[in-house]
Design brief:
Layout: H1 17-26, H2 32-54, H3 56-67, H4 76-124, H5 127-131, H6 135-177, H7 179-226, H8 228-233, H9 237-289, H10 295-306, H11 309-336, E1 348-354, E2 360-363, E3 370-375, E4 381-385, E5 390-397, E6 406-413, E7 418-423, H12 429-436, E8 444-449, E9 452-453, H13 459-464, E10 466-469, E11 478-479, H14 480-485, H15 493-502, H16 506-510, E12 519-520, H17 529-543, E13 547-551, H18 559-573, E14 577-581, E15 593-598, E16 601-606, H19 608-614, H20 617-628
Parallel strand pairs: 7-14, 7-15, 10-13, 13-14
Antiparallel strand pairs: 1-2, 1-3, 3-4, 5-6, 5-8, 8-9, 11-12, 15-16
Helix pairs in contact: 1-11, 2-4, 2-6, 3-10, 4-6, 4-11, 6-7, 6-10, 6-11, 7-9, 7-11, 9-10, 15-17
C-alpha cells in the first residue's frame, strides 16, 4: 500500500510479480523488434568483456613471454592482437550505447501508454472511489510508481541481464582456466552472498522505514503550507516547528541508517574482493612455480576475479529495484482494474427543432432547444423536450450501508421553479444534488427527470443537462476566457463575455492585467475567493442548462457583491429549474418552495411566508439569522 502522502516505499515486494511483469510486457509489444535488438546488444556487450579478458592469456603466453630476452622483436603480430582486442571492446561499447538508447525509447513509450490508460480510466471511476482515496495516494501512481517503473525498464532490466551474463560467463571461464582456483572463488563467493543477504536485508528494512518517515514529513509540510494562515492566526508557529522537528529527526535517523547500510555494502565487497585477489594471486603463483599453471592463465584468472564481485552486488541491488518497481506497477494496475462507473442508461440528450405540427425533430446543429431521445423496445423513438421537471419519490440513500443519510425523501420541482434546501451541516442538502447528478446511486425510491427515471438516462447526457456552482470553486490553469468556456466548449467569445456580464464578473475581469486573456494559476490564487466564485457562476451561465444547482454559490461573496449579482442570477434562473443550497436565508426568500432538512428528512416545506407563519425550524433559523445581521 502507498504511504499516507504518496511516499515511495523501499524494497516492497509485489504480490504477484510474474503476472505483473507479463502485463508490463504487453505494453512493450509494439517494440518487439527493438527489444530483440536490445537483448542481442546486451549479450554481445557482456560477452565482449568476458572474451576481452580471456585475450590476456594468448597475449602473455604467445607474445609477451616469448619477447623476454629477445633482441630483434617483430611487434606486428602483437600490435595486430591489440587491434583485435580494441575492436572487441569497441564493439562492446557500441552495443552498450545501442541497448541503453533503445531502452530509453522503449521505456518512455511504454510509460506513455501506461499513464494514458491510467488517466483515461481515472476519468471513468465513480466519485465514491475518490472519496476513499487521498489525492496524495492517487498522485503517487503518476509520480513515484511510474518513476520506479521507468528506472526498471530503462536501467535495471538491462543491468540485471548484463550482470547475470557476466557472472555466469566469468565463472565458466574461470572454471576452464583453473578448477582449483575456481573452488577457492566459490568459498569466497559464499562469504559474499552471506554478507549481501545480511546487509541487504537490513538495508531494505531501513529504506522502508526511511520512506515511511519521508511520507510523514512531506505530508506534514503539505498540510502546513495549506494551513499557513490558520497557523499564524492562532500563533502556533513554535508548536508546528516542534512537531516538524520530531518528524524530521525521525527521517534523519532513518535515512542515516538506510544510507549507512547501502554505503557500506560496496566497500565491504570491494575489500573482500581485494582479499580474494591477493589469496588467488598467491595460490596462482605457487601453481605457476610448480609448473601447473602458465602466466597468461593466471593474469586472465586474476582479472576475472576482480570483475566477479561487482556484478554479484549489482544483481542484488537491481533485483530489489525490480521488485520495488513491480510493487509500484501492481498499485498502478490495481487502480486501472478498479470497476468503472456503471452506466446502463440509453436515453440521450440531443439538439432538437420544433416542426410545424409541434413535434420535435433531432438535429446536429445547436438550437438551444434540447430533447430526450428515448428508444423503446418496439424499435420506436420518442423525443421529450427537456424542461427541468424533477421528482424525488421516496428516496433513501446512504454513503455507507450502515449509515443512512436520506430517509424516504419525496419532493418535486416544476419547470422554472426555484427550490431551496436549508438545514444544519450534514442534514443531507448536498446529497440530494449529488443524487440528481447520479454521482451516487440511490438505495431505494426513484428520481424522475421530465418523467423519465434518471437511471435510464446516460450519465454524461444527464450531467450535460445540469449545471452546478459549488461552494469549493475549482479553476484550471489557463485564461479567464478558457475557464468560463469550460461550461460549454463550443461557446463563442461573445457568449463567454455575455455569461460573465450575467454573473456580474465582467467588470473585475476587465481590470485584470490582460482582461479575459489573463492566465490563472494555482486554482486562481491571484483572484479573491469572491472573484473565483463569480467565474464559477459565469461558467454555469455559459452552459445554458435547463436545470441549475447552486450549492452555497454565494457563500464567498460579500453582501454588497451578492446584491449586485442578484439581478444577474435572477436572469440566469429565469425559465430554469433551480436548486439552491444556502446558509444565508436571505438568498432563498424568493424561492417557490423551501425544504427544511434535518437528519436526512424533510421536516418542513413551503414558501418563505408559509414557513414563517408555521413558526417552526425555519422560523427559528430565520429569526436567528435576522438577529445576527
Amino acid at each position: 500500500m502507498p504511504g499516507p502522502h504518496g511516499g515511495r516505499h523501499g524494497y516492497q515486494k509485489p504480490q504477484n510479480p510474474g503476472k505483473t511483469f507479463l502485463r508490463i510486457v504487453k505494453y512493450m509489444t509494439d517494440s518487439k523488434l527493438r527489444i530483440a535488438v536490445v537483448v542481442v546488444a546486451v549479450i554481445i556487450s557482456s560477452c565482449t568483456n568476458i572474451v576481452g579478458t580471456y585475450f590476456l592469456k594468448p597475449l602473455i603466453n604467445d607474445y609477451i613471454v616469448p619477447f623476454i630476452g629477445q633482441q630483434d622483436v617483430n611487434f606486428a603480430p602483437f600490435i595486430g592482437m591489440l587491434c583485435v582486442l580494441g575492436a572487441i571492446y569497441l564493439t562492446g561499447a557500441l552495443c552498450t550505447y545501442i541497448s541503453n538508447r533503445l531502452m530509453v525509447d522503449i521505456s518512455n513509450h511504454s510509460l506513455n501508454s501506461i499513464r494514458r490508460d491510467l488517466f483515461r480510466h481515472m476519468q471513468e471511476l465513480p466519485i465514491r472511489y475518490f472519496d476513499t482515496h487521498t489525492h496524495g495516494e492517487l498522485m503517487s501512481r503518476y509520480t513515484n510508481d511510474v518513476d520506479a517503473l521507468r528506472e526498471m525498464l530503462s536501467n535495471s532490466m538491462t543491468a540485471l541481464i548484463t550482470s547475470t551474463i557476466t557472472v555466469v560467463g566469468t565463472f565458466t571461464m574461470m572454471l576452464i582456466l583453473s578448477p582449483l582456483l575456481t573452488l577457492l572463488i566459490i568459498l569466497m563467493l559464499l562469504v559474499m552472498l552471506f554478507i549481501i543477504k545480511t546487509i541487504g536485508g537490513r538495508s531494505a528494512r531501513a529504506f522502508q522505514r526511511q520512506q515511511r518517515a519521508l511520507g510523514a514529513v512531506n505530508g506534514y509540510i503539505e498540510e502546513m503550507i495549506e494551513g499557513q494562515k490558520v497557523v499564524k492566526v492562532f500563533c502556533h508557529e513554535e508548536t508546528v516547528q516542534k512537531d516538524f522537528k520530531a518528524l524530521n529527526d525521525e527521517l534523519c535517523n532513518a535515512a542515516t541508517d538506510a544510507n549507512t547500510f547501502a554505503s557500506i555494502l560496496m566497500p565491504i565487497m570491494g575489500n573482500i574482493s581485494y582479499i580474494n585477489y591477493a589469496i588467488t594471486a598467491t595460490v596462482g603463483a605457487a601453481l605457476a612455480i610448480n609448473g601447473k599453471m602458465d602466466l597468461g592463465s593466471i593474469a586472465s584468472f586474476l582479472q576475472y576475479t576482480r570483475s566477479f564481485s561487482q556484478p554479484l552486488t549489482q544483481i542484488s541491488q537491481q533485483f530489489n529495484n525490480i521488485l520495488s518497481a513491480l510493487a509500484g506497477a501492481e498499485r498502478i494496475f490495481t487502480m486501472i482494474d478498479q470497476p468503472a462507473e456503471e452506466d446502463e442508461g440509453y436515453v440521450t440528450l440531443v439538439n432538437a427543432v420544433r416542426q410545424e405540427d409541434g413535434t420535435l425533430q433531432e438535429t446536429d446543429r445547436h438550437t438551444g432547444l434540447w430533447a430526450w431521445k428515448h428508444p423503446h423496445k418496439d424499435g420506436t423513438l420518442t423525443y421529450t423536450q427537456v424542461k427541468g421537471d424533477v421528482q424525488f419519490e421516496n428516496v433513501t440513500f446512504g454513503y455507507n450501508p450502515d449509515k443512512t443519510v436520506l430517509h424516504n425523501v419525496s419532493l418535486y420541482a416544476k419547470p422554472g421553479q426555484k427550490i431551496a434546501f436549508v438545514g444544519s451541516t450534514g442534514a443531507g442538502k448536498t446529497t440530494i444534488t449529488n443524487l440528481l447528478n447520479r454521482f451516487y446511486e440511490i438505495n431505494n425510491g426513484k428520481i424522475r427527470y421530465d418523467g423519465i427515471n434518471i437511471q435510464k438516462i446516460k450519465k454524461n447526457d444527464l450531467r450535460r443537462s445540469l449545471s452546478m456552482v459549488l461552494q469549493d470553486t475549482h479553476l484550471f490553469t489557463g485564461t479567464v476566457m478558457e475557464n468560463i468556456r469550460y461550461g460549454n466548449l463550443d461557446a463563442t467569445d461573445e457568449e463567454v463575455i455575455a455569461a460573465a456580464k450575467l454573473a456580474n464578473a465582467h467588470n473585475f475581469i476587465q481590470h485584470l492585467p490582460q482582461g479575459y486573456n489573463t492566465i490563472l494559476t494555482s486554482d486562481g490564487a491571484n483572484l479573491s475567493q469572491g472573484q473565483r466564485q463569480l467565474l464559477a457562476i459565469a461558467r454555469a451561465a455559459v452552459a445554458d442548462p435547463p436545470v441549475l444547482v447552486l450549492d452555497e454559490a454565494t457563500s464567498s461573496i460579500d453582501t454588497r457583491t451578492e446584491a449586485l449579482i442578484e439581478k444577474g442570477m435572477d436572469s440566469l434562473m429565469t425559465g430554469r429549474t433551480v436548486f439552491v443550497i444556502a446558509h444565508r436565508l436571505s438568498t432563498v426568500r424568493n424561492s417557490n418552495a423551501i425544504m427544511v432538512l434535518e437528519n436526512g428528512q424533510i421536516i418542513e416545506r413551503g414558501d418563505h411566508d408559509q414557513l414563517i407563519e408555521q413558526k417552526g425550524k425555519y422560523y427559528q433559523l430565520y429569526t436567528g439569522m435576522f438577529e445576527l445581521s
